[in-house]
Amino acid sequence: MTAPKDTSMDPLVRLDSVHVRHRARSGGVFHRDAVHALTGASLEVRGGEVLGLVGESGCGKSTLARVVTGLQRPTEGTVYFKGQDLWAMSAAERRSDFGAKVGVIFQDPSTALNPRLPVRRILRDPLDVHGRGTRVTREQRVEELLDLVGLPGHTINSLPGQLSGGQRQRVAIARALALEPELIVADEPTSALDVSVRAQILNLLVDLRSRLGLGMVFISHDVQTVRYLADRIAVLYLGRVIEEGKAAQIAGAPRHPYTQALLSATPSLTERSQRIVLNGPVPSATNPPSGCPFRTRCWKADDACSTEFPTASGGSDGHRWHCVHPQQAVEPLAA
Predict the structure, then answer these.
(1) Of 15, 116, 189, 262, which has the fewest CB atoms closer than 10 Å, so is most exposed?
(2) How many CA atoms does the CB half-sphere of 37 hold within 13 Å?
(3) Domain locations in the chain as residue ranges
(4) What single-letter DSSP state applies at residue 31?
(5) How far is CA 325 from CA 166, 292, 293, in A?
(6) CA triplet 7, 84, 100: central angle to 5 degrees?
(7) Phi and psi (nearest 5°) for 297?
């Protein structure tokens, strides 16, 4: 009899050379162009760690989030959940073994919450669908969730439209935590909020991560926000992961020119850097350039950059980048 595989050391979720291509509206009647939303993406998220995903709009961050949460099946490549091929599972297994272990926080709470349902029903729905406990214990869990995210008890009967933006996002966070997941995917959870409320939500996520031991994928175009929250950062450009490493390595010692340009465009109160203005054509996801996708805007690009996508370079510290002409190594800043 074969012993069961020990998955205790496996990451919660691992992506292995994942490609996602969509059919575009452009092209001929008999041939549609393909949108290369993700190309060869390989990442992993371990229990208790926060992985930050950064990049410009349209770089593939939200597509990657959909892949991690099982909402998008890859065109190619494999997604593993605790060492098991996610898409080799039956639909029932994905729902029970995977779906309940992954929570999602969407960008805009005003559209993510049903405006006709009170908070009580919004938070109880996941418990009802997955048949968790009795009716009494579900009601108790709803009250626990409100307390967990710092909402007063009287909001339990409120409709989303009667709450502030920050309160609605707290409800969305509570809903994501309802089934006690091991991984939370937060897709730009503060971008639709007022500046004064963003820090409160970020501090709440930090506190929840510490108290519950959650793994988290935090998606944002704001490098400074991701740097504050994440243990590791992955930088995406045109559907490719071009650099990955510890937050201090990426923010303090970027090796890919695009990462350096991205950091220079984000203001920081503690550091001063010269703004890097990118010139050249922005490539199309339906017809990406050969070689390095950033070469059409990179000040270091030459003929070697156009032949093929650079293989990963880096050391044993987990800092990896895909670049023919990387930035010179410097000592990373303290985290």
Answers:
(1) 116
(2) 19
(3) 253-335
(4) -
(5) 44, 11, 14
(6) 90
(7) -125, 0
- Report the C-alpha gap between 186 and 94 in whole angstroms: 20
| Residue 37 token pair | 């939303």
* Predicted model pTM: 0.89
* Residue 37 backbone zone (phi > 0: left; psi -120 to 50: alpha; other: beta): alpha
Over the stretch 112-123, which tens digit does the pLDDT of each residue have?
Answer: 899 999 999 999
Rounded CA gap, 206 and 227, in Å? 12
Amino acid at 65: A
From 213, 214, 207, 210, select the one nearest 150 (Cα to Cα): 207
Residue the block writes with tokens 């970020």 = 202
Residue length, the chain? 335
Please state, in angstroms and rounded to a whole number, the distance separating the CA atoms of residues 79 and 121: 32
Sheet with 232-237: strands ordered across: 102-105, 183-187, 215-219, 50-54, 232-237, 240-246, 320-321, 313-314
Q: What is the dihedral of CA 12, 88, 62, 104, to 10 degrees?
A: -60
Task: Return the SS3 of 330.
Answer: coil
Which of 62-71, 241-250, 257-266 is predicted least confidently? 257-266
Half-sphere exposure of 210 (CA within 13 A, CB side): 7
State the DSSP H helix or E strand holding residue 300, giving kind and residue range, or none if neither: none
User: Is residue 8 over pLDDT 60?
Assistant: no
Counting residues of the chain whose pLDDT is more than 70, the rounded percentage is 91
- For 183, phi then psi, to 5°, come to -135, 135
Among candidate residues 171, 163, 189, the one with its CA nearest the CA of residue 120: 171
42's enclosing H/E stretch is strand 32-45
Higher pLDDT, 273 or 106: 106
**What's at 77, amino acid-wise?**
G
Task: Provide the 8-state DSSP code for 98.
Answer: I
Spatial contact of 233 and 61, defined as CB atoms under 8 Å apart: no
- H/E segment holding residue 91: helix 91-93
Compute CA 284 distance to the chain's CA centroid, rounded to the nearest angstrom. 22
